[in-house]
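From the methods appendix. Each design record in this collection lists the tokenized structure first, followed by the designed amino acid sequence. Records were kept in a plain field format so they could be parsed without special tools. The example shown here is representative of the layout used throughout.

RECORD:
FOLD TOKENS (423 positions):
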């Protein structure tokens, strides 16, 4: 009898331990505890909405101020966002116990990060930088040398990091270290691929950055609003709070907003003009046919109901409809991918830097997809084919020394004078 009692005690303790283990692994879903998966059934939804709205207002206000300041400040904002995204993603697979045995290993991640940043931004901003310092002969020669050897500097910096990694390998830590090495490179690909397209869009004209980014924000806001008040039908299992009502309502709103917003933004030259240097002054240029209004006469029956007899539409508004379609139908899949990614790592958000939204990466998932599409669409369907004067000048300033540029100028002047003489 005593033996049976003794065996019963350990079995009860074992059951309690197993119960605690199961609880820590699975855990109740907060949404179910609050009344259901859908946002419309969440008992704390109004508190969550207030926090989210407050953060959104601050973010939009700060974003508007940075856009107003110009190209260079927007690029700086992109760099800051990159750093926060990298920090959040680096921490996903970080293990404190292993890191204690690898002093300086985290520093190696940032070495690779800034090396890739030097390579990417060196390629993107080399020509604007050269154009900025052309008036100063010393700076022009110095910057031209940096641009010429920028790829070699980036390569040897990466090789230094590669050797640093090899020399820090420790026995019994190989798997963790190589896992971190691969994870770091994947993060760099994800972060810098989208940001390089984003910066390229900025220098093509703030319009080509601001419109796609704004459409993602509009889609996100109205998906939340429609889901908040009307959401009843789940959309996808990866995101239990996403609903068909929110998806459809946001899609219609985004497409309409794209058409209207393109008309508003397209009337400001400082938004539509491309930036060829790194100065911060206001821009003026020939807006081009895309941003020149075309007038359409309305049918008589419309004039009877409204005061308008004709409307003016910018040709770029038709392109904006494609942006709206992509932002409302395709770009949300970036969010679904991020949701699945977070489920794989059993986390709710990538970070907690933005109250009510999570981390910076949580806000950038759809923006990454949209930025790449905006650049490819602009280069494929908007930019005119052929060689332009600006393209030739860019190549001359980028690839010829100051003396070679002078020689070219003298020969070109001689050729033009001969042609004028014959005519």
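DESIGN:
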């Amino acid at each position: 009898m005593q033996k049976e009692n003794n065996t019963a005690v350990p079995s009860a303790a074992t059951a309690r331990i197993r119960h605690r283990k199961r609880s820590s692994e699975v855990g109740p879903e907060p949404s179910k505890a609050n009344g259901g998966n859908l946002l419309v059934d969440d008992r704390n939804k109004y508190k969550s909405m207030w926090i989210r709205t407050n953060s959104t207002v601050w973010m939009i206000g700060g974003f508007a101020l940075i856009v107003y300041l110009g190209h260079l400040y927007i690029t700086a904002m992109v760099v800051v966002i990159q750093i926060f995204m990298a920090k959040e993603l680096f921490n996903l697979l970080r293990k404190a116990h292993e890191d204690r045995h690898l002093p300086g290993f985290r520093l190696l991640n940032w070495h690779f990060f800034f090396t890739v940043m030097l390579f990417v931004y060196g390629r993107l901003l080399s020509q604007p930088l050269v154009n900025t310092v052309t008036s100063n002969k010393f700076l022009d020669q110095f910057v031209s040398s940096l641009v010429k050897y920028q790829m070699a500097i980036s390569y040897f910096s990466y090789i230094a990091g590669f050797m640093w990694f090899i020399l820090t390998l420790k026995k019994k830590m190989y798997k963790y270290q190589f896992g971190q090495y691969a994870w770091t490179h994947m993060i760099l690909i994800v972060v810098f691929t989208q940001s390089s397209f984003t910066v390229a869009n900025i220098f093509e004209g703030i319009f080509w950055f601001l419109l796609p980014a704004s459409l993602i924000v509009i889609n996100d806001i109205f998906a939340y609003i429609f889901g908040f008040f009307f959401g009843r039908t789940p959309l996808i299992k990866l995101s239990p709070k996403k609903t068909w009502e929110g998806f459809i309502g946001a899609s219609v709103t985004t497409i309409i907003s794209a058409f209207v917003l393109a008309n508003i933004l397209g009337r400001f030259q400082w938004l539509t003009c491309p930036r060829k240097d790194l100065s911060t002054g206001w821009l003026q240029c020939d807006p081009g046919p895309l941003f020149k209004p075309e007038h359409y006469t309305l049918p008589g029956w419309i004039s009877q109901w409204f005061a308008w007899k004709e409307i003016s539409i910018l040709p770029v508004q038709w392109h904006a409809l494609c942006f709206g379609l992509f932002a409302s139908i395709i770009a949300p899949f970036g969010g679904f991918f991020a949701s699945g990614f977070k489920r794989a790592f059993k986390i709710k958000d990538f970070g907690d830097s933005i109250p009510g939204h999570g981390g910076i990466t949580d806000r950038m998932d759809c923006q990454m997809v949209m930025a790449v599409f905006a650049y490819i669409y602009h280069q494929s369907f908007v930019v005119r084919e052929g060689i332009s004067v600006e393209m030739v000048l860019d190549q001359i300033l980028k690839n010829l020394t100051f003396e070679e540029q002078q020689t070219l100028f003298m020969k070109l002047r001689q050729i033009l004078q001969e042609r004028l003489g014959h005519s």
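APPENDIX NOTE: The chain has a mean pLDDT of 84.
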